[in-house]
Amino acid sequence: MADAAVDSVTPVPVAIVGAGPAGLMLAHLLGRAGIETIALDTRTRHEIETTQRAGILEADIARDLVETGVSDRILADGYEHEGIELRFGGQAHRIDFQDLVGESVWLYPQTDVFVDLANARQRDGGTVLFGIKDTEVLDITTGNPRVRYTAPDGTRHEIRARYVVGADGSRSMCRGLVPEDRRVRYGKEYPFAWFGILTEAPMSAPELIYAHSAHGFALISQRTETVQRMYFQCDPEENVDAWPDDRIWETLQARVAGPDGFRLKEGPVFEKSVLKFRSFVQEPMRWGSMVLAGDAAHTVPPTGARGLNLALHDVKVLAEVLVRAFGSEGENALDDYQPQALQRVWRAQNFSYWMTQMLHTAPGGSDYDLRRQLGELDNVVGTRAGRTYLAEQYTGWPTRPTA
Ligand code: PHB
After folding, report:
1. Span from the CA of 105 to the centroid of ligand 1 (angstroms)
2. How far away, in angstroms, is 56 Cα from ligand 1 center?
3. Is the keyword Oxidoreductase in the record (predicted)?
4. Alpha-carbon distance 30 to 14, whole Å?
5. What range does the domain containing 167 cover?
6. How confident is the model over 169-184, as pLDDT tens digits?
7. 381: which residues sit within 8 A by CB, 6+ positions away?
8. Ligand 1 nearest atom to the CA of residue 222, by list position
9. Span 300-312, average pLDDT
């Protein structure tokens, strides 16, 4: 029944603020367990679908998407990669995931994961509201939290939930609802960003190349046989308009150049943007009846390809815990969420930080810094233990905490 302030009131067990991959995967997993959700997002579906994001999925996450019935498109359209190349001193060094840890990863862009999840929600009759405004989350310290929002037609609505999940990304509104004197924010800024391009060109190599060079970092990734994704380290304030195609290619080629004569296959650049990043964690991940998941609670630099994987692991743990909370265990089940999620979060924080500092050149860095980095890279590729360390982390950790 509507009250004076809103046009409608809808009860639902779980309201999910944010309908990106984390929010939608949670909705999907809860839906499979018979728990209804309403997911809502201020962005339109089109906006989310057309924002370029990272492209690597752990094998476990890819399996979850297929086995829980989101989509098996990944098997047809994704590319399974059994390793990556670390390039430094102008030489290639392969990290063979299959040989080292018996795992692989999937190149499958986040935008495709989102499309698959949005389609699965539609197919399964789940409620997802895109393009809403003025989201308000109320009463999270009670057992009856509410979410209010304005629909695209200007009408105002209220959702009455038992739990609210904040899956509203790195600029999360929800995380700010944890009282200022009770939340701890851990973070680190980096003095560089990534210049990302999409180019119409054939693949330059069978696998991703993470390149260290005296000129800075570059990452050679892929999208399809004819579209490639590449990045190079740049100033966070870099202006994309100052970068015509020939300047971009010159920069990228210089960062992968070496005695082996390796060259990237060039083509027209049809998208360019500067991606700023940082390391960030907020604790606690739960306040009363509100739980945070994914980028809302933590973000990592993209160097280790952890962000999406970490978010999807959060919601896997959270879905299990919420199913138990709605069963005989009740609210106490929620206490298991943060410890399980956080162990992985901090491991990923370390890995992403480590990859970032090992591969990027700090502005104003000395020759000593550069040579020390080469020593570090040599330590990584030079022994099976070093390569295994990288392979284990890049391909992911088990969901359960381990000793
Ligand atoms: C991408 O393909 O966009 C991508 C791949 C690996 C990363 C980051 C981004 O570490």
Report:
1. 12
2. 6
3. yes
4. 9
5. 8-58+109-186+279-357
6. 999 999 999 999 999 9
7. 86, 93, 95, 387
8. 2
9. 96
